[in-house]
Amino acid sequence: MTSINSLCVYCGSSVGAKSDYVAGSEALAQAMATRGMSLVYGGAHVGIMGAVANRLMSLDGQVYGVIPESLVKLEVAHEGLSELFVVADMHERKAKMADLSDGFVALPGGLGTFEELFEMLTWAQLGFHTKPVGLLNVAGFYDELLRFLDTACEQGFMKQAHRDILIADTDPDTLLDRMNVYEAQYKSKLPD
Ligand code: AMP
After folding, report:
1. What is the CA(3)–ligand 1 centre distance, in A?
2. What is the pTM (predicted TM-score) of this model?
3. 115: Cβ contacts below 8 Å, ≥ 6 apart
4. Low-confidence spans in the chain with pLDDT less than 50
């Protein structure tokens, strides 16, 4: 059993231009299934979101969706999940997804994915949570973002310790292993 039991995955409502993005995302679902991790995500059956949910369900994993009422039709809510939470708005969605999860991973996506990832990073920077935040850099999609974060450090806008909160990897198994180590190291520092 792993210390991260429930993983929140932020990802695109589109599939992207290369088949690698769906393939890489399905590989994350496979790695999660091997570890018995459940998935918390945005509850749609479109794009990378649907690909991850469908793959984990096909492997008998538990999948929890959280979707605002207004997006149920727009993003086409997934009807076959373990549970679908319909919430009032985007703020409630993000709060519920964070509450249900022991850690967060971003896959390729667009503005919605970026916003969710950066919110979890800023909350960690401020000490509002201590859960691991990972980035699966599928097919180099996030190379430039990672470089830009380094630039923000070099230019004095971000501390290296905060840059180090983000655990980025190209391999899903290695990423989940590193996130579990982060979790265990944090827990070992807590007073008994
Ligand atoms: P995208 O990466 O833009 O395809 O969006 C991925 C997911 O993020 C979709 O389910 C969007 O509805 C969701 N999303 C977009 N903006 C927000 C937001 N402000 N808060 C929470 N979820 C969002």
Report:
1. 27
2. 0.94
3. none
4. 1
